[in-house]
Structures are given as C-alpha cells and as structure tokens.
Amino acid sequence: MQRVFRALLLVSILCSFSAAIRLPLQACRQSSTHTPCHRAIDGNTNQKWSGNSCSHTNMQNKPWWQANTPRLAHFHTVRIYNRLCGPGCSSHQNNIVIKVDGVPCASYHSSHYFSVKTFHCNRVGQILEIHSTVRSYLMLCEVQAFGKWASLAHTGHRIPLSDCRQSSTHTPCRRAIDNNLNQHWSGKSCAHTKRQKNPWWQANTNRLAHIKQVRIYTRLCTPPCRVYFRHIVVKVDGHICARHKGVGLGSTITLNCDSVGQVVEIQAMAKKTYLMLCEVQVFGTYASLAHKGALLPLKHCSQSSTHTPCARAIDGKLAQHFTAKSCSHTKMQTKPWWQAKTIKPAFIQQVRIYARLCGPVCSRYLKNIIVKVDGRVCASYHSTAGYLSTRTFNCNRYGSTVRIESTAKTYLMLCEVQVFGRYGRKPPTHIEPGTGEETGTHETGTTGESGSPSGHGETGEVVSFERHCIDGHDSSEHKLGTSWTTKVPAEGYCYHYSCTEKSEAGPVSVDCMDASGHCVKPSSEGTDFACRSGYTSCSCVHRDGRTGIIFS
C-alpha cells in the first residue's frame, strides 16, 4: 500500500512539473570575470574549455553568478552543466548554493563533482543566483531554468499614484510611478535615494482610498547591492500596514495592506542604506466619502497667524499640495487655530478636513488637533505615528463658529474644511434620567442638547455619553446639587462636560474625552447614567489606549 501511495505521489509531482517551460535567462552578472558570464546562457552546452562556451570567475572567496528572467516566475528546476576538466579542476564545483531572489532553494555539497545535474527549486522570484560557498573558481558552461510564469493577481483595481517625494535624490522619485517595469539600472526606470538612515519614498492617490495591496518592483542588482533590501515597511497616512523582512528581498513583492488613506510611503529600515524602487503599484478601491446632512457654506474665516490666507481652506478646491495654492497655513506657533462661521446657526453633524499632503517630516504637524463648535470640543485627533490626509469627524453640536485647533507648537495646514448638517433651532429633546431614551419635546424648565439618542446601553456594548442639564444652565453655571440627565448619541464618542454637581452615585469624574465606552458594572440602584436600568458605572478607552472612568 505504501508503494502505491508513493507512486501516486511521484506521479502527482511529475504532473505538476509537466507543464513547466524553459524560462529564458538574461542580464547576467558574476563576481569577477575570467571569461564572460553570458557564455552560461548562450544555449551552447559544450562543457570543454576549448569550446569557448563556459563562464569562469577568477579565484576568489565565495564567487557567484546570476541572471534573471524577464518577469516574475515560479522556478521548478535548475539544470547546471559544469566544465569538464581534471579532478583537481573539477573540485571547484563541489560546494554550491542556488538562490532565487536571494533565498536558497537548493544546494550541492560533496567530495564528488558532477557533470550535469538538475536541482529541484520550487521558488517564486526573478533573480537566479549560483553561489560557491568556498574560496574557488566558479565555472558554468550552461545554466537552464524550468518553471512557469507567476501570476500577479491582485485585490481591487489599480489606483494611480502621483506627487511623489523621497528623502534624498540620486535618481528622480517619479521613475517609480512611470509604468516602466524595467528593473535594471541601465533602463533609467528606477527611483533611487542616496545612502542614508531609514530612507523613504512616498506618493499619494488622487483621493481617499481603501488600499488593499501594494506591489513593489525593486532594482535587480548584484548580491552586494541587494543587502539594501533586507527590511522595508509600507505605510498609509503614516501608519504601518505591511512589513517585509528577510535575507533576500523579492525582486517583485506584493504586500497586503488593508488601510484607508491617501499617502503611500515605503521606507527602508537601516542605519545606512539606499532605497531603490523601479515601480510601485497600489491596488484597492476609492473610499466612499458619505456624509450626514447638507454641505453648509462657511464664511468669515480667521486664523491665529498667516503664512497663507485662511480663505484657501473654504475656496472649494480639494487640492492638497502647497504648489496648488489651495491650502491655508499658519506660522509656527503654540496652539495655532483656524475658524470660520456658518451662514446662520446650525446643527453641525460632521466636519471634514482635507489636510496638506507633504513628506513625513512635514506631516507630523497634523497629529494633534481638536474640533470645536462655538468654543466647545466636539471631536479630536491624536496620533503618535500616523497623520491625517482626509478625515471626517462626527460632531453633533449646535452652533455657528467652527474652529480647528492644534494642541501643540506647530503649523496648522488646512487645504479644505467642509461642514455638514442642517440649519434650524436646537432639536427639542427631553431625555428621561438614566434611560438614554428620547421621550418627547422640550418642557419648561428643561434644556436639551443636539444629538440623536441611540437607546439603551447593554453590558459590554459600545455606547456614547453626553450629559445634559435639566435646570437650564450651561455646564459652567452648574452648582453643586443641581439636577441633570443624560442621553446616548449614536456617534460612538464620549462627549461630556465638567459639571461637578452631586448625583445619586457621587461626583462625576471626567477623564475620557473622545473615547468609546462600555457599560460594565451591574447595579442594584435601578438606574444609571446613560445605561439601561440595572447597570451602573461606565469605563472608556481612549483612542491612544489609555483608560479611565467616565462616571463613578
């Protein structure tokens, strides 16, 4: 039975390789030259020195020979025709390793030399390398590769890239998005930085996109050159979405990303290295920019200081580059701000920001901002790594003045600010204490705030909290002991004020701004703040990972 199984397995393997074709090899190189490298791919299998058909390096430590296929291939087998000479000469062929894109796939170590030998490889790549592991000559009369062309399947459609930049320039960054897949230096189709620490290259999509995959065509070069490709990361809007690390970086690699953003960045991670990219392709779909309510025009803008006019952020132009002259820009200062007003008071549901797109150093200025309506915070963005390119914030505030403010010493660079909502008076809502349910219209002696209740909060359910004052006072006017109630907006943020009045459960602790919360603790009291009857106390988690107690 075992013999039958082995026979079937052998037949299966042979069938899988039966469709293999001879893969053409080209653009050869070798570590040193006694006779030219191209003799090993000239189609002449004569194995004698007199036939002038064998490539030959000089005597050296670990000599190598390499060539590449025209495009990505699945190497099934590699056949080597050695030079036939006396025993002393042939001993130089006893220790070799075969690599595809720098990764070993076969080897030969023996006291006996071979004349012709076929090695099973089973590796996908483009660069075929034969490497001696000792001080020796490397003498190859013919090298043949067999396999199939590899399929370059992708997810989504190809998204064009534009407006590239790189950390330094040896050759222009635009060569990596010129649609030329030539991966050789002589083809003048590869972007190339200078040698530096953590060099980077970036470009952006025409608009916000769901980037599913990034494909990189690296420069094909000799083994000493390819050490520069050992560790790279791919980022979208400053956030790492993929990483490739290994002995040999693939000649063509496709990395899954699954991130939404606009700026695609590739960075080599090393103290001193080059970044060499012959083509970068991005696959995915454009992201939907749905919004709530109507687009509300803004006017009467102002900003804390002026490098470029504030009006550029409300001129209707969505270009996000400085050269387009469509971005407002403050000077470097502490907590810079920009603001504008709606035509009349409105229920502002969302605020969308189109930030300036620039290099990683410049983009760090867009990491810490808050959004206010009539002086009250409705949304914020804080990030230690990434930055925003285009972002929509849920606000749910009634007012007229929309203000965007940085919380650090920085520039504030806004290419467009859009506000969505509806004109009108504050929505008449009366929220029953502790239920989070809308029960009817405003009554005398009560006050409600903007927002749509979302019902009860169950144990472990993500909800949002916003406190409203029954006695008609603002949070700044509250006095100890005055009454209040709560509601649950449907937007997924913790918005609350720093009222310090007493409640049945004690004083309010305000630790979590712009956070998602969970009703986590059962109660015997029968009611709770924005939680369903029977549950009490709510904890929340900041977007940056910190935790705190909203109500205690």
TrEMBL record:
Key word Calcium present in the record?
yes
Signal peptide (from-to): 1-20
Q: Which GO terms describe its molecular function?
A: fucose binding; metal ion binding
Q: Which biological processes are named by the entry's GO terms?
A: regulation of cellular defense response; regulation of complement activation, lectin pathway
Q: Where is the composition biased (Low complexity)?
A: 431-456
Q: State the residue spans of region: Disordered.
A: 426-459
Q: Where is the Fucolectin tachylectin-4 pentraxin-1 domain?
A: 19-153, 160-292, 297-426
The protein's matches in InterPro entries, at most eight in alphabetical order, are given as:
BG_Antigen-Binding_Lectin, FTP1, Galactose-bd-like_sf
UniProt keyword terms in alphabetical order: Calcium, Disulfide bond, Lectin, Metal-binding, Signal
Domain of life of the organism encoding this protein = Eukaryota
Tell me the function of this protein. Acts as a defensive agent. Recognizes blood group fucosylated oligosaccharides including A, B, H and Lewis B-type antigens. Does not recognize Lewis A antigen and has low affinity for monovalent haptens.
Q: Which family does it belong to?
A: Belongs to the fucolectin family.
Q: How does it assemble?
A: Homotrimer.
The entry's protein name is Fucolectin tachylectin-4 pentraxin-1 domain-containing protein
Q: Give the source lineage, highest ranks first.
A: Eukaryota, Metazoa, Spiralia, Lophotrochozoa, Platyhelminthes
